[in-house]
Design brief:
Number of strands: 22
CATH topology of the largest domain: D-amino Acid Aminotransferase, Chain A, domain 1
Radius of gyration: 21 Å
CATH superfamily of the largest domain: ATP-grasp fold, B domain
Strand content: 25-35%
Bound molecules: glycine
Helix content: 25-40%
Number of domains: 4
């Protein structure tokens, strides 16, 4: 099969890495890709948001399956456009991708279909939103831009004063543009976070292994939220709780989307908070998580390609359940100085050649670029995702951090406590 992966981050490097091992694969392309994907696929200079360009390429190169990594093209309707041209494209269509594209829609969906989540309030007008804050008891609150904001639209506020600042960024200063036309206030939930990603064709539902992301930028879950600083998988969930998550949240969500006439096909990412009252939906994403994908795909022993093809064709029931390596995988994200705030690009990266990659250790490129002479440079906030396997969390952590120490660039930083609580 000829496969095109769309995207340019660590998630897409991991997708290419896994798909490149498939015996079904003939040619693998990545658009636009990064220096990591260039080692295993042919990078194509088409932006992930250029749906028309991607479709033209898929037709010209006889691509059998296009696999979309990021949310933006999914929310823009890439799957619908490919379907019109009778080209297979893995992921939810535009209507289904709204589960991530509109936080307000996702929350209303949960309320309507009784899927447990935090209390929430949606506002479009500044005066009404401010009045809500003036009249609620002071305390923590989560403020979200309803639309897509490249992972920057969520602010966890300690009190109403902070919530007012986050609100003004959204509705008044228009920091997120149209994505901030609506603001969603959510009750702050405490507990342990778990990411559960499910592969579904809208009928058959295949949960992947649970993972734990570490969103805050600094050790001890301090500092502002990021796209994700590191992940451990699996996370110990009691079988009873796993059943509860599936039966009360994941299955009802897929069914709810069917009832809303938005059949969901693709990866559905459910961000959960394990509270004393039970699991609650923190967020949905219409795609694989980044960096959850990196350690999950290292643990996945089954061939990914037939699973993606079957989900796209609505035949997931024909596939065996995926087989997982029982060992632990830990992914540590190395970031540019200043991230998640402003950061410099084009900083030379050293030491990658010293890292001995193999089945138990992979360094996935996220925000990197390559100079004509071959020098590797930083090109994003999250630069590299160092991912290691081990018989237990301590071994996987030690292996990942040993590799991190080999890598150097000015300003780099990473959390030193990924998976420590495990
Ligand atoms: N790691 C969180 C996300 O992919 O949204």
């Amino acid at each position: 099969m000829n496969v095109l992966v769309v995207g340019q981050g660590g998630r897409e490097h991991a997708l290419c890495w896994k798909l490149s091992k498939s015996p079904l694969l003939k040619r693998l392309f990545c658009a636009p890709g990064n220096p990591g994907t260039a080692q295993i696929a042919q990078n194509v200079d088409i932006a992930a948001e250029d749906v028309a360009g991607l479709l033209r390429f898929a037709i010209a190169e006889k691509i059998d399956l296009t696999v979309v990594g990021p949310e933006a093209p999914l929310c823009a309707g890439i799957v619908d456009e490919f379907a019109k041209a009778k080209k297979l494209c893995f992921g939810p269509n535009k209507a289904a991708a709204e589960i991530e594209g509109s936080k307000a829609f996702a929350r209303e969906l949960c309320r309507k279909h009784r899927i447990p989540g935090p209390g929430f309030w949606v506002y479009e007008e500044m005066a009404l939103a401010r009045s809500f804050l003036d009249n609620r008891p002071d305390g923590p609150l989560v403020v979200k831009a309803s639309g897509l904001a490249a992972g920057k639209g969520v602010t966890v506020c300690k009190n109403n004063e902070e919530a007012k600042v986050a609100l003004a960024e959204c509705l008044e200063k228009r920091r997120f543009g149209e994505a901030g036309n609506k603001v969603v206030f959510e009750e702050f939930l405490e507990g342990h976070e778990v990411s559960l990603i499910t592969l579904t064709d809208g009928r058959t539902i295949v949960p992947l292994e649970p993972a734990r992301d570490h969103k805050a930028v600094f050790d001890g879950d301090k500092g502002p939220n990021t796209g994700g600083m590191g992940v451990i998988t699996p996370v110990g969930i009691l079988p009873r709780l796993a059943t509860q998550i599936e039966s009360q949240i994941v299955f009802p969500t897929v069914h709810a989307m069917n009832r809303e006439n938005r059949r969901y096909q693709g990866f559905l990412y459910t961000g959960l908070m394990m509270t004393p009252q039970g699991p609650r939906v923190l967020e949905y994403n219409c795609r694989l998580g980044d960096p959850e994908t990196q350690p999950l795909l290292m643990r996945l022993q089954s061939d990914l390609l037939p699973l993606l093809l079957a989900a796209t064709e609505g035949k997931l029931e024909t596939q065996e359940a995926p087989v997982w390596d029982k060992r632990v995988a830990v992914c540590v994200v190395i970031c540019s100085g200043g991230y998640p705030g402003d950061y410099k690009k084009g900083v030379p990266i050293f030491g990658l050649d010293k890292v001995a990659s193999g089945p138990d250790l992979q360094v996935f490129h996220a925000g990197t670029s390559q100079r004509a002479g071959g020098d590797l440079l930083t090109a994003g906030g999250r630069v590299l995702a160092v991912t290691a396997m081990g018989n237990d969390a301590a071994t996987a952590r030690a292996r990942a951090y040993e590799a991190c120490k080999q890598i150097e660039f000015t300003g780099m930083h990473y959390r030193t406590d990924i998976g420590q609580k495990a």
